[in-house]
Amino acid sequence: MKKRTNLLLIIFFFCGGSLSAQQHLPFYYYKGNRIMLPVNTQHFLVYADANRLSTELFAKEFRINEWIEDGSNGIIEAQVNIPNDNYDSVINVLKTKDYVIDVEPVIGHSKFVNTSRLFYVQLYDAQDYPQLSSMASRTGVEIRGEVPFCENWYELRVNRNSIGNSIETANMF
Predict the structure, then answer these.
(1) Which residues does 52 contact at the CB level (< 8 Å), separation at least 6?
(2) Is a pLDDT exceeding 60 seen at residue 108?
(3) Confidence of residue 24 (pLDDT cuts 50, 70, 90)
(4) How much is the pLDDT for 22?
(5) Domain total of the chain
(6) Which of 19, 52, 123, 133 could form a disulfide with 99 if both were Cys (CB 3.0 to 4.6 A apart)?
(7) Is 122 inside a domain boundary?
(8) Residue 87: which H helix or E strand, with range?
(9) pTM of this prediction?
(10) Three-state DSSP state, 94
(11) Same-domain check for residues 22 and 49
(12) Whether residue 104 sits in one domain with residue 70
């Protein structure tokens, strides 16, 4: 008998989007049901390295809808508006900029929900950590560590070199 999948995925709220909003609609599972997420193809969440780019230059480069992090912790995070018909090309261009850490989608059209680079995974057993580590390596995901007070729960984070954004990658796990 095949061994059951060793990883159980839990996504905190909405944590990511899609590499191609037009072709690969992002989803998450809730009570066993697959829930599709409406990606806004005109807005992106951009994470930038505050040591390589100031908030002033960031604001000149992008049309800011909402500031989330001001750079005081080393990261600038903002929801930006980039009107363009080709969602994938915008993401690819953004990820080529040396100061960009990650680009995540924004969910919704009339009301925007920002996504996160983080997602959480619960292992069935602590002995499954090597499998988690191997999968993280294959997908370009960083294991940030065990979640305090939550046995066998781990926080993971995507970046611009990860296979997909946080929802896509979380769904892989």
Answers:
(1) 98, 99
(2) yes
(3) low
(4) 40
(5) 2
(6) 52
(7) yes
(8) helix 87-96
(9) 0.78
(10) helix
(11) no
(12) yes
Domain of 102 in residue numbering reads as 41-112
The letter for the amino acid at 9 is L
Q: What is the percent of the chain with per-residue pLDDT over 70, rounded to a whole number?
A: 86
Using only the alpha carbons of the chain, give its radius of gyration: 17
DSSP 2: P
| Residue 149 burial by Cβ neighbours in a 10 Å radius (0-12, 13-18, 19+) | exposed
pLDDT of amino acid 100: 95
Interatomic CA distance for residues 67 and 25, integer angstroms: 26
pLDDT at 141 over 70: yes
How does DSSP assign 98-140, residue by residue?
Answer: TTEEEEEEEE-SSS-EE--SEEEEEESSGGGHHHHHHHHHHHT
- Let me know whether 55 and 76 are in one domain: yes
Distance, in Å, from the CA atom of 80 to the CA atom of 33, rounded to the nearest integer, reads: 31
Q: Give me the phi and psi of 35, to 5 degrees please.
A: -110, 120
Neighbours of 136 (CB within 10 A): 19
